[in-house]
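Comment on the following before class.
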Amino acid sequence: MPRLTYRVYVIELSKRVFTENTRFRAANPQFNGVLECLYVGMTSKDPKERFEQHKKGTLSKRGHKLSSNIVQKYGAYLRPNLYNHIAPMTTRAEALKMEEKLALELRRKRYAVWFN
């Protein structure tokens, strides 16, 4: 059986998220409106497949929502140039750490970023 790997991914969001979503705006006081609004996530799936799940509002077999409300409403497209340099990881914990690290790095570069 092939070993499960995890990847981080970045989705560009509509800039409307900054004006319409109070929690997003509060999480990004450094944002000056010049760069893009982004969502950073991690997945064991292909990032394109995961993006489609977000946009469609996919539910799990048990009826739990698999998508982020922010991506479902404001997600535009994947930004592979911001994550392709990161190698796949073998554990979920490692991927979660990398998700946070990448999100904070992008915030330091003055992007507006949402991550879980």
Observations:
- The first strand starts at residue 7 and ends at 13.
- The chain is about 40% helix and 20% strand.
- The CA atoms of residues 12 and 39 lie 6 Å apart.
- The first helix runs from residue 16 to 20.
